[in-house]
Specification:
Blueprint: H1 5-15, E1 31-34, E2 38-39, E3 42-43, E4 53-56, E5 59-63, E6 66-70, E7 76-79, E8 89-97, E9 105-110, E10 121-125, E11 130-137, E12 140-147, E13 151-159, E14 163-168, E15 171-177, E16 190-192, E17 205-212, H2 218-231, E18 238-243, H3 255-265, E19 270-276, H4 285-295, E20 302-305, H5 315-320, E21 325-329, E22 332-336, H6 348-359, E23 366-370, H7 387-392, E24 398-403, E25 411-415, E26 418-422, E27 438-447, E28 450-460
Parallel strand pairs: 18-19, 19-20, 22-23, 23-24, 24-26
Antiparallel strand pairs: 1-17, 2-3, 3-4, 4-7, 5-6, 6-17, 7-16, 8-13, 8-17, 9-10, 9-16, 10-11, 11-12, 13-14, 14-15, 18-27, 21-22, 25-26, 27-28
């Protein structure tokens, strides 16, 4: 029987098992691999210990100025079976997570069983949308889990002989008790991007992996993430997409949303997307679930606001989470503010929340404010009550843009240095208020000099 290329490479990886491991307890890593060390299908071990990884079909890719090894079906890296009988362990990985389909998959592991079982250790994903850290010792098997998030992240598994810990971005996210030395499974090689048995492919990217034969402290894990970010700063310039007023009613009405999602996924410039309300027509549970499933196809982070058509039943909150939120990307801060109910001014509680956000924000930091109802002064019939009061809160801060939906039309104007926009709907169940026929979304381009925008037509519906 002829051996497949993957099978031959697995045999090559197993051949590396004859190497003599370094002494346990060394301060530095036993092995360290980074995308910068990828040469001729080999990820060289930066420690000099000779634990190189053979790359199978995978290739380097770049996003936002950072490089990673693109993994997926048939694309991985394989190496030696490090870790047998170790009393302690730390496994660190920098990943670019793109919200792949929920499934068991290996990010960096020695795991030949897959699914809920494993035979040594690993950082993996599961069907519930979690990142998981798993170890198997002579005392049994234990798992620590936390919800996965899209974007660049640092994952770390540490095991000190009594406790398994999972860290995300330098902070402990979960822990579980277990004792004993790691089991010995010399037939199971280390794999990056899949299981050791060449299944369970991770559809994402891995930029760096480090393996220690001791349990790093929380301070050391945090320092490792800070150091990597300092050495790999994200690009100062980035783009994001913004859609609104999808007005989903049934499976057919989701088709145009799927078309928009496909366009956004195919645009390598888009770092994330915003969805500014009226995801459904009538705020019923089925329509909200359809909208959420449509947006779940996005391969990069997305953030949603509810519109006046999304208020009833609490279905938006169940599918999409908090009504008000902030997040940062690059040096910019994005503030998503719920503007419902539409005919009443913003409540004092909501204005207090904005004040507290601004008090905790450097006045020089570029800000983008997002609402469903327009804050745009020239949209009088659709203007959010109390819009001027909200904008006044940003006096003394670096507000760059105020983005809104609700009014189905493409408008953009700079007023007092702030870019105000509304955007045509992305719907087949509704038309545009200005009579135009283009349905689509906006792209925004952020630079050190400011923010600019353009409209992307998804469909023209006369």
């Amino acid at each position: 029987m002829r051996s497949s290329p993957l099978h031959l490479l697995l045999l090559c990886a197993l051949g590396a098992l004859t190497r003599v491991p370094p002494a346990l307890g060394a301060e530095g890593p036993v092995a360290s691999w980074a995308i910068e060390d990828l040469v001729d299908a080999v990820l060289a071990d930066a420690t000099g210990n000779g634990h190189d990884l053979k790359v199978v079909q995978a290739a380097g890719q770049e996003f936002m100025g950072r490089s990673f090894l693109r993994t997926g079906p048939g694309k991985c890296a394989l190496g030696p079976a490090l870790g047998d009988d170790w009393p302690a362990l730390s496994l660190l990985a920098v990943v670019f997570h793109e919200q792949p389909e929920k499934a068991y998959a290996g990010i960096a592991c020695r795991d030949a069983y897959g699914g809920a079982e494993g035979d040594v250790f690993g950082l993996l994903t599961d069907p519930d949308g979690n990142w998981i850290a798993r170890v198997t010792t002579v005392g049994g098997q234990q798992t620590a889990a936390t919800p996965a998030q899209a974007g660049w992240h640092h994952l770390a598994l540490t095991y000190d002989g009594s406790l398994l810990r999972l860290y995300v971005d330098g902070r402990e996210a979960a822990q579980a008790a277990i004792t004993g030395k790691l089991v010995s499974a010399p037939e199971t090689p280390l794999a990056i991007g899949g299981y050791s048995n060449l299944n369970g492919w991770y559809s994402g990217g891995v930029a760096a992996v480090r393996l220690h034969d001791r349990a790093l402290t929380g301070e050391e894990v945090a320092a490792a993430w800070e150091t990597w970010q300092a050495e790999h700063p994200a690009a100062a310039e980035f783009s994001f997409a913004q859609g609104n007023d999808v007005h989903v009613t049934d499976t057919r009405s989701v088709e145009i949303l799927n078309d928009g999602v496909d366009r956004i996924n195919a645009d390598p410039r888009v770092a994330f997307s915003l969805w500014l309300g009226d995801l459904t027509q009538n705020s019923d549970a089925d329509a909200m679930a359809l909208a959420r499933m449509g947006l779940s196809r996005l391969t990069r982070p997305c953030y949603a606001l509810r519109g006046n058509h999304d208020v009833a039943g609490g279905h938006f909150e169940r599918e999409f989470g908090p009504l008000n939120r902030t997040f940062e990307f690059g040096c910019w801060k994005f503030i998503l503010l719920d503007s419902n109910p539409e005919h009443l001014p913003f409540s004092e509680d909501r204005l207090l929340w904005v004040r507290e956000v601004l008090e905790a924000t450097d006045p020089a930091q570029p800000l983008v404010l997002c609402t469903h109802h327009p804050l745009y002064p020239n949209t009088a019939a659709y203007l959010a009550p109390g819009a001027a009061e909200v904008i006044a809160l940003f006096s003394g801060h670096n507000l760059k843009a105020a983005l809104s939906g609700h009014y189905h039309a493409n408008q953009e104007e700079v007023v007092d240095g702030v870019l105000y926009t509304t955007t045509a709907c992305l719907a087949t169940t509704r038309g545009n208020h200005d009579g135009t026929t283009q349905r689509g979304y906006r792209l925004f381009h952020c630079t050190e000099d400011g923010i600019t925008t353009e409209f992307v037509t998804v469909r023209d519906i006369p």
